[in-house]
Amino acid sequence: MPAELPVLQSAVLPSDAIEVGRIGEAWGVKGWFKIVPYSADPEALLRGGNWYLLPSEKGAKSFFSGTVLLSVKQARVHSDSVVATAGEIPDRNGAEALRGARIFISRADFPKAAEDEYYWVDLIGLEVVNREGVSLGTVKDLMATGPQTTLVLSQEVDGKALERMIPFVAAFVDKVDTEARLITVDWQPDY
Fold first, then answer.
1. Rg over CA atoms, the chain
2. 20 to 30 A from 48, CA-CA: which of 4, 13, 87, 161?
3. Quick one: how far is CA 36 from the chain centroid?
4. Containing domain of residue 59, as a range?
5. Domain count of the chain?
């Protein structure tokens, strides 16, 4: 007799939803599953609450389509990964059925960042200017480079795409104004 698939409620993906990870393999026999987080600090995942799932873009096809809601009962760090359980997932078979699903969380549900701390997603798209007001580009990505994070900027100069990297540290970053969508740095265009 084939295992029953979990019953998941259809949902509308919030306009501020951020993809934070994907569901990995089942963990144990009681419906727990592993998470592959996209951040080294998976705090938004650990808060539990509502996760929005979309089917995997690659690999095995999910048993659901569109956006579904998953009510997470508990999520925690276990060894070198994150594990979670949800009310809709009664057993190992249900957990295995979710494998590969992409996890989204509403940005409004993220924990509040401490002063002078920022979520990477909030920095993407901000313009970066130096102290003289010269534009150095727009943040297109961030890279973890050992002990620090590096801003990866893109800019078009004379019809050519230019990429610039600036360490995201107090020695170079004067001010981050997310409301004005602007980062001011102590950096010159020819560095």
1. 20
2. 4
3. 11
4. 9-109
5. 2
